[in-house]
Amino acid sequence: MKSHPKPRIGLLAGDPSGIGPEVAARLLADPAAMDLAEPVLIGDAGVFYQGTHTAGVSPDLISARELLSVPLTETAPVAQVTSVAGAFTLATLRAAVEAFRAGQIDALVFAPLNKQAMKVAGLTQEDEMHYLASLLAFKGLCSEINAADKLWTTRVTSHVPLRAVADLITHTGVCAASRLLATLMGANLGRPARLAVAGLNPHAGEGGLMGTEEVEIIAPAVKQLRAEGLDVTGPLPADTLFIAARRGDFDGVVTMYHDQGQIATKLLGFEKGVTIHAGLPMITTTPAHGTAFDIAGQGLANPGPILAAWALAARLVRNGTPGSA
């Protein structure tokens, strides 16, 4: 990677039919954010210009920046799921990986994508993180970490049906997710992270009365992690552990499934929520919210999450945090 005076971060406008172009424009208009890193725009110039129009900011913000062009060949209607938008999104992700491999960017930040549009366009992986992993030929563990201000969370399972979760909770999975969170948080904090691990069942299983996953899988995994030197507590009841985390008892929380952590995280800091695609060789962050079709094109989008995603990506690059933690 070439040496630059400040990090060079690739910026994608996300799904062109959602609020992505608008929040990308608001990011580019923020002087403090631009002081943190140099943006490299990846996508269609017209999509970025449309974002400046919606946001009510100067189009010069686009013309003044380096652009790696990915043309949008057909119109993508606002607030609609289309294969056109999905195919364009996938093309921008491919271009971002090419730019990273060529040393043109140090990290990637993308505005919200739409999984349904990408699926309609032919995405075979479960989500964009696993698509990036395939493009990077990365075979190791990758996992979503959500950062809401000072509290970070990750999960053992992710975008799978709720009925499948129990069968996917494994000793290996609990350990791997916890190690990844501990490593990335430690690099960010400059000290060992204090982690809490949630149970799967109500009341963390009540000693096996309400399910045995805690006794048979989660507790033994926590014991192994502690033997490895990690500061880990659990399994704890998921409905109360976030109270302890909010008051500062823990830096990070390992949950067992998507909504167990996402609901609490968004309540605690939706306006600052960031998703990190941890484990990938390329540092990748994105706002922890969706495409918000209900307000797309109206100039109402809050740039707070993408500003937080940008700042975190820049900090991880400066700290020398490896993508594959």
Describe the structure concisely.
With 325 residues, the chain is α/β, with parallel strands linked by helices. The protein has helices at residues 20-28, 31-36, 45-55, 60-63, 83-101, 115-120, 128-135, 165-168, 171-189, 213-227, 238-246, 258-269, 304-318; strands at residues 8-12, 38-43, 66-69, 107-110, 143-148, 151-155, 194-198, 231-236, 252-255, 273-278, 283-287.
Question: Could you describe the 3D structure shown?
Answer:
42% of the residues lie in helices and 17% in strands. It has 325 residues and is of the alpha/beta class. It folds into 2 domains: 1-140 and 279-325, 3-Layer(aba) Sandwich (Isopropylmalate Dehydrogenase), CATH 3.40.718.10; 143-271, Isopropylmalate Dehydrogenase (3-Layer(aba) Sandwich). Strand 5 and strand 6 (151-155) form a beta hairpin. It is globular and about 60 Å long. The model has no long low-confidence stretch (mean pLDDT 95).
Number of helices: 13
CATH topology value of the largest domain: Isopropylmalate Dehydrogenase
Main sheet makeup? 11 strands, mixed
Kindly give the count of domains. 2
Our measurement of the CA-to-CA distance between the termini, rounded to an integer number of angstroms, reads 18 Å
CATH hierarchy, class of the largest domain = Alpha Beta
Task: Using brief descriptors, characterize the structure shown.
eleven-stranded mixed beta sheet; 325 residues; alpha/beta; 42% helix; Isopropylmalate Dehydrogenase
List the helices and strands and how they pair.
Blueprint: E1 8-12, H1 20-28, H2 31-36, E2 38-43, H3 45-55, H4 60-63, E3 66-69, H5 83-101, E4 107-110, H6 115-120, H7 128-135, E5 143-148, E6 151-155, H8 165-168, H9 171-189, E7 194-198, H10 213-227, E8 231-236, H11 238-246, E9 252-255, H12 258-269, E10 273-278, E11 283-287, H13 304-318
Parallel strand pairs: 1-2, 1-4, 2-3, 4-11, 6-9, 7-8, 7-9
Antiparallel strand pairs: 5-6, 5-10, 10-11
